[in-house]
Specification:
elongated, 10 strands, about 30% helix, two-stranded parallel ribbon, 6 helices
Length: about 220
């Protein structure tokens, strides 16, 4: 039936996409609009989860396509690089005498609120600091990105996230200071199963994500 219907026009069927929280807020609406325009006879679902969870969902078939940060290679997963994002220290707006950037070597000075392992950014920060003979000062473990930002806004610590984690229209009390010397970058990749053949709809959806994501995630 799928092959017969596809002969008549655009791909049909259903595709499920997994997005990390910081991307779900930015990409969900553009992906849905684009999907409806290009695949009017197909259906779409989007689920939100941390990158490590999305990788598991791809393996077991809960989602067909996942966008994941700093993925861990696995035999059951095919990974394709999409883009890189600079990570920032999220915290109170710095005073006049404070620098607008934060050297990586100074990160252990800051009490951090981070997701529990094996969160992708947590693992990246720990491994990069370990290379300098340092370790982060994690004072709270919270797995919800929105809750982390709320706790930072209440003055309970700092976070290491992409700039887009700050909600639009924030009151100006928080700032995202890029981590430098060296810069801390998070790699974003598209994950699909290597165990199940992709349908024409899944392949076409991935191509649309490749077109949409760099535009929507470009620094503004």
């Amino acid at each position: 039936r799928l092959e017969f219907d596809e002969v008549k026009g655009s791909p049909v069927g259903h595709v499920a996409i997994g997005l990390p929280p910081t991307l779900a807020r930015v990409l969900t609406a553009p992906i849905v609009r684009d999907f409806r325009q290009h695949f009017p006879h197909a259906t779409l679902s989007i689920v939100e989860g941390l990158s490590a969870t999305i990788q598991e969902w791809v393996q077991v078939g809960r989602v067909d396509v996942g966008l994941v940060y700093n993925p861990t290679p696995a035999p059951a997963i095919e990974l394709a690089p999409l883009l890189e994002e600079h990570l920032c220290l999220i915290g109170p707006r710095p005073g006049r005498r404070e620098a607008s950037t934060v050297p990586m070597r100074e990160l252990p000075r800051y009490p951090l609120i981070m997701p529990a392992r094996p969160n992708a950014i947590r693992t990246l920060v720990e491994s990069r600091l370990a290379g300098l003979g340092l370790r982060p000062q994690v004072t709270l473990e919270v797995d919800a990105i929105g809750a982390i930002v709320d706790l930072v806004a209440e003055g309970l610590g700092y976070a290491i996230l992409s700039r887009r984690a700050l909600p639009e229209g924030a009151d100006g009390g928080l700032a995202a200071r890029p981590i430098v010397r060296p810069p801390l970058k998070s790699s974003l990749a598209i994950a699909v199963s290597s165990q199940r053949p992709a349908t024409p709809l899944q392949t076409a959806t991935i191509e649309r994500i490749r077109a949409i994501a760099p535009v929507e995630l470009a620094p503004r």
